[in-house]
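Good day; I would like, with your permission, to put a structural problem before you. I would ask you to consider whether the tokens describe a fold that such a sequence might reasonably adopt. The full record is reproduced below for your convenience:
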Amino acid sequence: MNSIDKRHYRLLDTCILENRKRYLNSISNNRKKTIFAGDILLRYALLKENHDISEIKLLYGANGKPFIKKQHINYNLSHSKDIIILGITKEELGIDILYERKINNNFINFFFSKEEKSRLHSLVEKEKREYYWNTLCYKEAFIKRHGGRIIEMKNNLICPKNLQYGRVIRTQEKGKAFESIFFKNLKYHICIISDKIPQKIKVEILNMDEVYKKLNF
């Protein structure tokens, strides 16, 4: 998002109606920027898949989760620091991204189960950071897919042990069967959770100029 400059906001008038309303009603400049970035990223992804973006209508589910009316397209957005990430598929999904910072011991006490705490404290420093951020990402992504609050996940959702980045993990928690996949890019940790992770995942890392060029037609 740090590549967004004033000229890019020419795309604001073409934003999806619901997102444009959210943008105009927000009093936080950072929130405005996030809404704008999410909107253009979504439109970019839809346009690349040859969807008509001129008639997109967003609706919201029971947990306030948006989806695209009539096109059977589910998506989820997350942002951390300067990165915003979009997951888009036919399956419902939750996605979360977190930038690695100093470990917050209060988060461990509030959000980690006894099993997770025990595993965390058995690891060396580098592995500890990996497990800490992946655990938080995992719980946030689960909530964004299934609903609930992160505090409720403390003893009901256990982050997989010995996970491998880019490998799908099949899990059953709280009576729900689902799949998860983890990625890491620099200090950014990413987790995607869905009922079924596609066998082929297309990943693009973009800057604003690439998105602008595609949408500025």
